[in-house]
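Hi F.,

I've been meaning to write this up properly since the lab meeting, where we talked about keeping a consistent format for the predictions we share between groups. The idea is simple: the sequence comes first, exactly as it goes in, then the structure tokens exactly as they come out, then a line or two of notes. No screenshots and no reformatting. I'm using this chain as the first example so we have something concrete to point to.
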Amino acid sequence: MHKWQFILLPFSWMFWVIVFIRNSLFEFGILRSYQIPIPSITVGNLRVGGTGKTPMTIYLCQLLQNHYKTAVISRGYGRKTKGFRIVTAADSPILSGDEPLLIRQNLNSNSTVAVCENRKEGFSQLQKQEPSLEAVVFDDAFQHRKIKSGLSLLLTEFDRPYWDDHLLPAGRLREPSESASRADILIITKSPANLDENQKNTFISHTRFSSENVFFSSIIYSGLFAKFHSISFIKKVVLITGIDNPLPLQRELEKNAEVKAVTFPDHYSFTALDLTHIHDIFGTFASDETAIVTTSKDFVRLQQADVNHQMKNFPWYVMEIELQLDKQEIFNQRILNYVRGI
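Output, unedited:
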């Protein structure tokens, strides 16, 4: 633990008291949770920042939408609007948030994506507009105790597990690690793809979950996709990110190219001036073998900033990813069985 964390520990203890009182009020029924009346799944985490919730939400909805009328309800972090809103493919991050827009772009017409700060109000509004709704996924709602879903998925990163962290502000946890017991399934995200069973069991031993309720997921980089025009060979990359942890992507790109990383804060709202700066950096390479690479989530926000339509003149690429789960068939069947009511 760093010295500055020791200094902040008393504030973390105060935060623990506040969280403990709040959770106790729900546990003893003084504050009530609204039981979602249809099959519902919560995707969440204990830690502030990215743990892979958006890829998991997309994965769940893509699994469900082929069988059921499905919806996602998200807060819509970073949007400038308030209240309930149905997200459309024509929306912008300002209207709906970058993550809900990315989710919308990855689902078919049998899925609805909505944003609302109040998840209970969001579900109520959604049911009025979608009376045939059969399943709902609540994105980033583990701390939203005012609703109670039927199945709770807790995500934690392999390299930054919740049991090795501290409560805010000394650490990054929004709740103490004991709160993980509210979850039905624990998913260890961004795991190495080649973990053996002994390594998995050692990792699981740090949790309070049985092995059948723990799944390991990995991010598979499925390739670079040109958004405007492509180049024949990529030897250098200007990497543009506004995500919580860009290092895994940077390391992946460094396997085949020289990388200059330009990082922005998580959920950063890019401006036209930022784009000009990025293109100026790209210009310093003066090479036909240089590409500008970003993530799908960042590209949504970058396009919003492209008011002068500069991006089409440059070799912008997006690194697409896929979610890979160990025991994938078991996981899929468990999700489908739950929604079926088996």
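Notes:
The two ends are 46 Å apart (CA to CA).
The chain has two domains: 3-220+324-340, 231-314.

If this format works for you, I'll send the rest the same way.

G.
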